[in-house]
Design a protein that fits this description.
Chain A is mainly alpha-helical and 119 residues long. Chain A is built from 6 helices and 3 strands, in the order ααβααββαα. In chain A, helix 1 packs antiparallel against helix 4 (46-58), helix 1 packs across helix 5 and helix 2 crosses helix 4. Chain A binds chain B through residues 3, 6-7, 10-11, 13-16, 19, 22-23, 26-31, 33, 75, 77, 80-81, 83-85, 87-88, 91-95, 98-101, 113, 116-119, and chain B through 3, 6-7, 10-11, 13-16, 19, 22-23, 26-31, 33, 75, 77, 80-81, 83-85, 87-88, 91-95, 98-101, 113, 116-119. The structure holds a DNA duplex (30 and 30 nucleotides).
Chain lengths: 119, 119
DNA sequence: TAAATATTTCAAGAATTGTTGAAATAAGAG
DNA sequence: CTCTTATTTCAACAATTCTTGAAATATTTA
C-alpha cells in the first residue's frame, strides 16, 4: 500500500458515520448489507449515506454491487489488512514495535538505523 | 482506546503533511525534533506547522515541550500502539483476522459470533 | 405500462479544515 | 535592555467536507 492509498483509507475511517458503517460491515460478512439496512441501522439519511459510501469506496474499504433493486456493500478486507500493515511496517518502518508490530524484527531493523537516528 | 480518541488519531494521520510529520518523528526517537527542524525537513511554513502540530497533539500522537528557545516534539508511542490495537481488536472485534490480527484468537471469536452474523 | 420501492444526483448552504502574511510572544546572546 | 532567533497567534480567505430536500434514475410488482 502506497502513502496516497493509505491517506485515502485513513480519511475514509476518520469520520464518525463512516467508522460506524465500517464497523457494521465488519459484522456483516461477505454478503454485506443493503444501503437501506445501513441507513436504518446507523440513522444516516439516504443522501448522506450515498456520500459516505462513496468515500469508503474511494478509500478502497468497501465494494458495492446491485442486487435486485438494492445496492449491497461489503468490506474490502484486504485494504484493511493493508492499512494495518502500512501503519506497522511501512509507516513506522524500522520501528514497528512503536505501533504494536513484531518486537524481534523491529529490533533488528532498529540496529540498522542506529547510525541514521539523530540522538 | 475509545472510538472518539481513535477518530481524533485517525483524523490526525489522515492528512498528507501530518502523516509526513508523523513519519519523521518515528525516525527521530524520544528526543524528537524542534519545530524549526520539522518545518525545514517537510517544507511546511511555520504558521502552518503550528496548526498541524496542534492536530497531532489533539490526536494524542505527539507530545511537545520547550527546550531553550525551541519547542521540541516527539512521538507519543502508546497512542499509535493503541490505534493499531483499536483497528485490529476493537474496531474489527471478533474478526481481527480481517485487519491482519491474530488468526487463532480471531477464529475463536468468530465461532462465538456465528449465530449473530446475518449470512 | 403505471405504481411502488430503493438509491443516486444535484445544488444550496453550513461547518470544518488548511494556508497566508503580519504582528505578537518567548527566550537566549551581546 | 536591545537584538536576534524561534514559535505562536490572529484574521482573512480558500478549499474541502458534510447535510438537506427535491428531483431523477433504476428496478420490481401489479
Amino acid at each position: 500500500m502506497k502513502t496516497q492509498e493509505a491517506l485515502r483509507a485513513l480519511s475514509a475511517l476518520a469520520q464518525e458515520h463512516r467508522l460506524s458503517i465500517f464497523r457494521l460491515l465488519v459484522t456483516a460478512g461477505p454478503n454485506g448489507l443493503s444501503a437501506g439496512e445501513i441507513a436504518r441501522l446507523t440513522s444516516i439519511s439516504p443522501a448522506s449515506l450515498t456520500f459516505h459510501m462513496k468515500e469508503l469506496d474511494r478509500g478502497g474499504l468497501v465494494r458495492s454491487w446491485r442486487a435486485g433493486r438494492t445496492i449491497r456493500s461489503a468490506l474490502e478486507v484486504e485494504t484493511m489488512r493493508g492499512l494495518v500493515t502500512f501503519l506497522t511496517e511501512d509507516c513506522c518502518a524500522g520501528r514497528a514495535d512503536l505501533c504494536g508490530g513484531d518486537l524481534m524484527s523491529a529490533r533488528q531493523a532498529c540496529c540498522q538505523l542506529d547510525g541514521v537516528l539523530n540522538d
